[in-house]
Amino acid sequence: MTEEIIIAGFGGQGVLSMGKILAYSGVIQDKEVSWMPSYGPEMRGGTANVTVILSDERISSPYLKLYDTAIILNQQSMDKFEKTVKKGGVLIYDPNGITQHPTRQDIKIYQVEGYRLASELGNKKVFNMIVLGGFLKIKPIVHLESVIEALKKSLPERHHNLIPLNKEAITIGMQNLFSHKLEHQSAVNHS
User: Fold this and answer.
1) How does 127-144 read in b/e, with b if 16+ C-beta sit within 10 Å?
2) How many Cβ atoms sit within 10 Å of the Cβ of residue 179?
């Protein structure tokens, strides 16, 4: 199993954190891991993306042009990365701020309203964990327990009190992933 992922959005949306947590989760599960961030000099508000590769085999190169999955959090990233999803791959996006929705017919497209759900939860900082939960619903490449361990490693100890909220956010994301292709949006159910 090898999963090649691009996560892209604005700086400040937790793009790099989401990638780091996925990478730590892979390490915890003894997978081969590559985490390669890219961001503009302005950071918060500028564009940011991270490539994460998780594999059972050695990773030959962290540089990719095509991805199994793209997680898109803003329009600029949609414009840039929609076309980089491999045929048969997956694109997950938060529709907040997206003016031109994805149109490809040869990939699976899903929405998770992370921004809205995080606002309803009362903490917009867990937006990225809601989106991560949506991803893990259809691509359970790491276990939830590993993600919680990864949160402990990546969050400063003074913020460990937020781990239950982050776990709840991941669960909410898993429960609120919708297929973009359906006329009538319905939750994805892979039980």
Assistant:
1) bbbbbbbbbbbbbebbee
2) 15
Question: Is 42's pLDDT higher than 60?
Answer: no
CATH 3.40.920.10 at 2-112+140-162, yes or no: yes
Q: What is the pLDDT of residues 50-68, one digit of tens each?
A: 999 999 999 988 889 999 9
Segments making up each domain of the chain, as ranges: 2-112+140-162
- Position 40 pLDDT exceeds 90: no
> Is residue 182 over pLDDT 70?
no
Q: How far apart are CA 145 and CA 119, in angstroms?
A: 25
Length of the chain: 191
**H and E: helices and strands count for the chain:** 6, 7
| pLDDT at residue 191, as a whole number | 44
Q: Please state, in angstroms and rounded to a whole number, the distance separating the CA atoms of residues 180 and 191.
A: 19
What's residue 97's pLDDT? 87
77-108 burial code (b ≥16 CB/10 A, e <16): bbebbbeebbeebbbbbbeeebeeebeeeebb
Q: How far is CA 154 from CA 18, 41, 110, 137, 147, in A?
A: 10, 23, 27, 22, 10
- Ramachandran area for residue 12 (φ above 0: left; ψ -120 to 50: alpha; else beta): left
